Amino acid sequence: AGVQELVGQHKGKVVVVFLWATFNQPSINELPQLVRLCRAHPEDLHCVSVSVDFSGEGVEPDELRQPVAEELGKAGADFDHVISSTAAEPLYEEIDLLSGIPAVYVYNRDGQLARRFDNENLDQPDFSFRKDVVPFVEELVGGQAAQQ
């Protein structure tokens, strides 16, 4: 609900929501691409990272702030960050994300979901920002290629 509220606050911009975790190397590898994309379109794009590190067992969401902040800092992320307080597995079920993370949700300027990138809904497995997300977002914002 909090993420949907953030999306709603940025109507008029394309919003990219990235679900990831500090223990998931593929999502860590994609963070710098998200940062580059967001920096390429500061007027037209808003980014939100959603950490799904919380498992519901042992460690509370607040205790995850430091490791999440460290990974985001390494990538140079300076956009909104949310640590899910819903445990990962129930969250995946709730949002019908059976393949798990990483996953990217791209919302158009009207706040409507334009496309979800994950490894279960693509014709080709193993999506990436560079080959899949960036071209799609570039088309929505009408800008030049943000790939570097």
Any low-confidence stretches, pLDDT <50, length ≥5?
Answer: 143-148
The amount of beta strand, in percent, is: 15-25%
Give the distance, in angstroms, between the N- and C-terminal Cα atoms. Answer: 34 Å
Q: What integer value in Å does the Rg equal?
A: 14 Å
What is the number of E strands? 5
Structural class: alpha/beta
What does this structure look like?
The chain has helices spanning 2-9, 25-40, 65-75, 88-94, 129-141; strands at residues 14-20, 45-51, 80-83, 103-107, 113-117. With 148 residues, the protein is α/β, with parallel strands linked by helices. The longest helix is centred in the first third of the chain and has 16 residues, at 25-40. It is globular and about 45 Å long. Mean pLDDT is 86; it is low at 143-148.
Summary tags:
148 residues, alpha/beta, 5 helices, disordered C terminus
Topology:
Blueprint: H1 2-9, E1 14-20, H2 25-40, E2 45-51, H3 65-75, E3 80-83, H4 88-94, E4 103-107, E5 113-117, H5 129-141
Parallel strand pairs: 1-2, 2-3
Antiparallel strand pairs: 1-4, 4-5
Short summary:
Helix content is 37%, strand content 19%. With 148 residues, it is α/β, with parallel strands linked by helices.
